[in-house]
């Protein structure tokens, strides 16, 4: 029997993924935008909708990065509102374990799970820079290993709070208005957190909300293998996906878990056309809209850590090498390149091999997993990735907000259903049932 594909929709916000200058692109703040995408995802029988969260506006060379602003309303507030206009769609939100506290996050996510009837998910992330920390009283900066130590204990503590109520704790005399027999008493003492008290909410409809982890680093993979239900990753080819899939799944046995206990769902974009040629031409147009000349130079400056504003984006790479000792020019985004000099060497080789300009190189180097073709071709390609163990499904990132998901839901999903690899209707009411029903 073929594997059943898992699908999620990512509301991307204003950044270099979204073609935010397109007249069809809507507001990133108006609730109607969130509602539109959520209703589309539910119409398409998706597992969940996924919101990232920007804790500070990104800056480049001391100015707000207008082509890559991740600014939006509070994640849990938006998801709570979406719970009122959907009935089956899962609701996943990102909350940092670096600048929040366990009790606060446990209460927020538990509340969302109760309000939605068991559809909440928490994407656990770490925040890597002191620049973002300036928005918080605790502030500061944590090294990578320290961030993951905090994150691991953070998640353990949250789960202790969720489990502090017995399943049958909410009982009592309805006429007398007395319902609580045993409240959620908790005590946690560890290197990161030393707290005790009473949790305010009983166990949620899911027992525990779904936990998602985003990250491709070795620490992130191990964290996901130990603790997560879903890992949100990125890879660009079938072979890379299979390697990631194999590596993460093999780690599960060390924690007494099976392959089915952790779902791997990479981010992916898609472009559809009436013909394959039309789809590829449209995809090329989209990438050039996403990577404008100024955007290309800014991307290059992230690696070079030099002012390259005098260079022509349609010209060759700078002859000068990156300055590895300089301060970053971009603040507020994850630094994906740990060795800038080595990254520049690889980019030079790629540019020379394919005769690429700066802009063409940035497009080549930053393109994430893409599915391009007719709706039927895309359905078959998505299915091929899942059946060949490159993933368990995908988190789709449309290039238009909020209407970019419509085509996939209306044109690709029916082909997946015809292949017998995607649901024709929801069979459960909770997100955990969507993701893990056998």
Automatic annotation (TrEMBL):
Residues 24-388 form the Luciferase-like domain. Keywords: Flavoprotein, FMN, Monooxygenase, Oxidoreductase. The keyword Oxidoreductase applies. It comes from the Bacteria. Pfam families: Bac_luciferase. The keyword Zinc-finger does not apply. FMN binds at residues 94, 148, 217. One of its GO terms (molecular function) is oxidoreductase activity, acting on paired donors, with incorporation or reduction of molecular oxygen. Belongs to the NtaA/SnaA/DszA monooxygenase family. This is FMN-dependent oxidoreductase, nitrilotriacetate monooxygenase family. The lineage of its organism: Bacteria, Bacillati, Actinomycetota, Actinomycetes, Pseudonocardiales.
């Amino acid at each position: 029997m073929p594997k059943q594909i898992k699908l999620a929709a990512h509301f991307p916000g204003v950044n270099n993924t979204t073609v935010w200058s397109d007249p069809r692109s809507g507001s990133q703040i108006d609730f109607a935008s969130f509602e539109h995408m959520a209703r589309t995802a539910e119409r398409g029988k998706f597992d969940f909708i996924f919101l990232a969260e920007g804790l500070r506006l990104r800056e480049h060379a001391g100015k707000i990065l207008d082509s890559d602003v991740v600014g939006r309303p509070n994640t849990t507030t938006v998801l709570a509102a979406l719970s009122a206009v959907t009935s089956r769609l899962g609701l996943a939100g990102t909350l940092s374990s670096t600048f929040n506290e366990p009790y606060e996050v446990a209460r927020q996510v538990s509340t969302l799970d109760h309000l939605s009837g068991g559809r909440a998910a928490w994407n656990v992330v770490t925040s890597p820079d002191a620049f973002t920390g300036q928005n918080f009283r605790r502030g500061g900066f944590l090294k990578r290993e320290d961030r993951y130590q905090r994150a691991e204990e953070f998640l353990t503590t949250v789960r202790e709070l969720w489990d502090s109520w017995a399943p049958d704790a909410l009982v009592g005399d309805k006429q007398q208005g007395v319902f609580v027999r045993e409240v959620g008493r908790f005590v946690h003492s560890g290197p990161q957190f030393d707290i005790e008290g009473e949790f305010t909410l009983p166990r949620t409809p899911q027992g525990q909300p779904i936990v998602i982890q985003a990250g491709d680093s070795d620490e992130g993979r191990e964290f996901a293998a130990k603790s997560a239900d879903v890992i949100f990753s990125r890879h660009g080819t079938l072979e890379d996906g299979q390697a990631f899939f194999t590596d993460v799944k093999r780690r599960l046995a060390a924690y007494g878990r099976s392959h089915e206990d952790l779902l791997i769902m990479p981010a992916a974009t898609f472009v559809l056309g009436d013909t394959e040629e039309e789809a590829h031409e449209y995809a090329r147009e989209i990438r050039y809209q996403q990577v404008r000349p100024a955007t290309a130079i800014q991307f290059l400056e992230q690696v070079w850590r030099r002012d390259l504003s005098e260079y022509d984006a349609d010209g060759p790479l700078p002859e000068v090498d990156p300055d590895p000792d300089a301060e970053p020019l971009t603040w507020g985004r994850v630094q994906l390149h740990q060795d800038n000099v080595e990254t520049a060497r690889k980019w030079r080789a790629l540019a020379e091999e394919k005769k690429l300009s700066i802009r063409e190189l940035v497009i080549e180097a930053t393109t994430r997993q893409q599915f391009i073709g007719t709706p039927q071709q895309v359905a078959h390609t998505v299915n091929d990735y899942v059946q060949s163990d490159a993933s368990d499904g995908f988190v789709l990132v449309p290039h238009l907000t909020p209407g970019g998901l419509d085509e996939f839901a209306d044109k690709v999903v029916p082909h997946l259903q015809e292949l017998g690899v995607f649901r024709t209707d929801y069979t459960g009411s909770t997100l955990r049932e969507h993701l893990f029903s056998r």
